[in-house]
Amino acid sequence: MPLSTDELRRYSRHLILPEVGLDGQKKISAARVLCIGAGGLGSPIALYLAAAGVGRLGIADFDAVEFTNLQRQVLHGTPDVGRPKTDSALDTLRRLNPNVEVVPHPVRVTSQNALDLIAGYDIVVDGTDNFPTRYLTNDACVLLKKPNVYGSIFRFEGQASVFAPHLGGPCYRCLFPEPPPPGEVPSCAEAGVLGVLPGIIGCIQATEILKLILGAGTPLLGRLLVFDALEMRFREVKLRRDPQCPLCGEKPTLTQLIDYQQFCGMKPEPALPNPDEVTVHDLKRALDNPGLGIRIIDVREPDEYQIARIDGAQLLPLSALAQRFRELDAGQSYYLHCKGGVRSLKAVKFLREQGFKSVKSVKGGILAWSEQIDRSVPKY
């Protein structure tokens, strides 16, 4: 289909590139790309793909916009807080380029819908922030022979690659065969992330998508690009397809999709109470009744302690616990809390290994305290 006069003007800087030209822009306009996630990574990905004129742009996200998103998720603005991210993204992208067909998918990606969702697109881009969706995306792309443009961010570091075994490269499982145990990897909410970092990694992912559409340049196939924002350095790690990979190897054992429980610091609700946990109401009783003999330890970092704190809690960061645990009395009873309950469980495990008998983690951490006990304590 020929480009309209308005499209010729809109994409003129593409058209004068020999590597793109009129034929290349037509390829872009005919391409179908699914962006899984409309958050930190999905924002720059979607914005630049829409600006470039990708014909059909799917946005899959089941979440709503929160104030804490606005520091990095530039698809959304302050008036969008509380709205579904797919609705906010649809409005933003339509304003940017009405020629692009934006298809919202306000659903959680699961083993039941992933194949149907991905089948209608040519390229999938991973803008997720959790391991269950990341593994599902990878597995579905391998099974459907779709390129998976990967990105991830953590604090000041980001990574990007292209996983496509059908094009001769590895898949995500070649690099990480299995997800980490629940709570092993802190989420952005626990560890933080520099707001501009997803913009950098997301733009790299968008660049890789356009290169794949155009068949131009050398994609990040078999290469993991690692970016350190503090040092402002890029380095490259060579990746090889693993012949023992359970998904794309010579004798695959994974032939259908698997639903994982929430990882990346998002601990699933247990069917039975965790014996290592107490509630914020238990914590309040301990603080209100010193005679119970329970001391409260805050295992967050000092910067977090300055933002919000629970009166009566002693700061002893998890990062320093291995060096400082002897400051504590192994015969004393302790309640440990962090922001959401992930790090405090790690601290409980560590102290138990050192011989502490009476240590418990406060479920939900200071966020639960703010929600259920004292709303004057800021949430962050």
Description:
By secondary structure, this protein is of the alpha/beta class. The chain folds into 2 domains: 31-238, Rossmann fold (3-Layer(aba) Sandwich); 277-372, Oxidized Rhodanese, domain 1 (3-Layer(aba) Sandwich). It has helices at residues 5-10, 12-15, 21-30, 42-52, 85-96, 114-119, 131-144, 172-175, 188-191, 197-214, 280-288, 302-307, 318-324, 342-353, 365-372, and strands spanning 32-36, 56-60, 101-105, 123-126, 148-154, 157-163, 223-228, 233-238, 277-278, 294-298, 313-315, 333-337, 359-362. An 8-stranded mixed beta sheet has the order 3-2-1-4-5-6-7-8, sandwiched between helices. It has a 5-stranded parallel beta sheet with strand order 9-13-12-10-11. The longest helix is centred in the middle third of the chain and has 18 residues, at 197-214. The protein is elongated, with a radius of gyration of 23 Å. The model is unreliable at 262-271 (pLDDT under 50).
Topology, please?
Elements: H1 5-10, H2 12-15, H3 21-30, E1 32-36, H4 42-52, E2 56-60, H5 85-96, E3 101-105, H6 114-119, E4 123-126, H7 131-144, E5 148-154, E6 157-163, H8 172-175, H9 188-191, H10 197-214, E7 223-228, E8 233-238, E9 277-278, H11 280-288, E10 294-298, H12 302-307, E11 313-315, H13 318-324, E12 333-337, H14 342-353, E13 359-362, H15 365-372
Parallel strand pairs: 1-2, 1-4, 2-3, 4-5, 9-13, 10-11, 10-12, 12-13
Antiparallel strand pairs: 5-6, 6-7, 7-8
Helix pairs in contact: 4-5, 4-10
